[in-house]
Amino acid sequence: MVEMAERTGISRDTLHRLERGDASISIAALLTVLSILGMETALDQIRAEDPTGGSLHDTAMLRRRRRAMGAVAPVAGIRQQDLIDFAQRDWSAIADAKADHWRERKRRFGAAEAFRLADDLREHVARARPDWPDEAERSADLASHVAVGESLRRVRDTGTR
């Protein structure tokens, strides 16, 4: 449910209501979910029965895409099936592969590389979001560092016994 909400930009509550058959859910939400699930036949049938809803869906998707990407023109050569295939990838396997990659990279490069990567990430975020971090985020970050420090001290103390 969380993954579908992220992929569609529709809240989990709305998706839950859609699953239960709530009639108050917009046709745009239904069409979005069907397109993500690769159910073009059902999508085409709904569009044929409700052309207004279909065009509302297209407009909503275009607005959402523009907001997310900043009015980027479509990329030539990408077909609808390519996007469907991308959306239906085994995302948990990809997450596992990424975790393995970073575990191995940390093992090979050690602490100095980890600090360099963290600083690169901090610089990237500072350029992308100059107002970051705000006071609440600074406080949460400090709490995270304190927790990590305490964990490291416990490990060090356990190792010296």
Name a few traits of the molecule.
mainly alpha, 161 residues, 8 helices, single chain
Describe the 3D structure.
The protein has 161 residues and is mostly helical. It has two domains: 86 residues, no CATH class; 69 residues, no CATH class. It contains eight helices and no strands. Helix 3 packs across helix 5 and helix 4 packs across helix 5. It starts with a helix and ends with a helix. 4% of the residues are buried. The model has no long low-confidence stretch (mean pLDDT 75).
Give a brief description.
This protein is mainly alpha-helical and 161 residues long. 78% of the residues lie in helices and 0% in strands. The protein is elongated and about 65 Å long.
The counted number of beta strands is 0
Helix amount, in percent?
Answer: over 70%
- Measured between the Cα atoms of the first and last residue, the distance is 46 Å
Provide the structure class: mainly alpha
Q: How many DSSP helices?
A: 8
In round numbers, the mean pLDDT is 75
Element order: H for helix, E for strand? HHHHHHHH
Main beta-sheet annotation = none
The shape is elongated
Poorly predicted spans: none
